[in-house]
Amino acid sequence: MASPSLCFLASLLSFLTLVHARIPGVFTGGPWQSAHATFYGGSDASGTMGGACGYGNLYSQGYGVNTAALSTALFNNGLSCGACFEIKCANDPKWCHSGSPSIFITATNFCPPNYALPSDNGGWCNPPRPHFDLAMPMFLKIAEYRAGIVPVSFRRLPCRKIGGIRFTINGFRYFNLVLITNVAGAGDIVRVSIKGSKTGWMSMSRNWGQNWQSNAVLVGQSLSFRVTGSDRRTSTSWNVAPANWQFGQTFSGRNYRV
Hints:
Blueprint: H1 4-20, E1 33-40, E2 67-70, H2 72-75, E3 84-89, E4 102-110, E5 131-135, H3 136-142, E6 150-157, E7 166-172, E8 175-181, E9 189-196, E10 201-208, E11 211-214, E12 223-229, E13 234-241, E14 250-252
Parallel strand pairs: 1-5, 2-4
Antiparallel strand pairs: 1-6, 2-5, 3-4, 3-6, 7-8, 7-14, 8-11, 9-10, 9-12, 10-11, 12-13
């Protein structure tokens, strides 16, 4: 029979293992990888507004200038919209800023391929190249303007957002188009369901970017949303839109833990 002191030691080791384990329900990011980065949008990043993720005005949506357009290899047909990355200039002492400072960006746009140019000379976003076209203010935080393009190291990180997930309801009576923004945790979304106060849960289909659609008639019902991130964790926001909601309004729901 084990002595009480040995039992206590085993319990203590088990407790410490649990303390240092990854907390269930929290997105932990990914490994460092290699890519290249360029910039676009002008010194005030005004040219980055809109974009293939559907976020519209990146300032009013809370993304600011901390954004990037992703190449085909990273964009995942729009499913990567909202993902967050840490990026450092790497292995180019002529153009990288000293100390290799990090920037933290959210994917908000698509950098399309340019097949008229070779991948190593202008066709930077051609498949299969992983590439970030950064908002110009972010590029200047890691490299010199004259560089134009630099090698970078990058990794996925949990998105840290202020406030809840935001649901902007557009469309008309028979067509609900919901833009989902300000998603913490994994940041990118792979599945969305909607529930009216008089219906069960209904799957929504992704229309484009992070705009999700439902053809159900939901006017006059309070609305709940269930969002699943790329890490397969789900957040449910119950009755976030009251029964008198109107098209064009935005409502805030439950965000992911970070």
